[in-house]
Amino acid sequence: MSTPRGRLGQWGEGHARRYLEGKGYTVEATNYRSRWGEVDIVARHGEELVFIEVRTRRGAAFGTPEESVTAAKSRRLIATAQDYLQTHGLEQSQWRVDLVSIRLDTAGKLLGVNHLENAVGE
Question: How many separate domains does the chain show?
Answer without folding.
Answer: 1
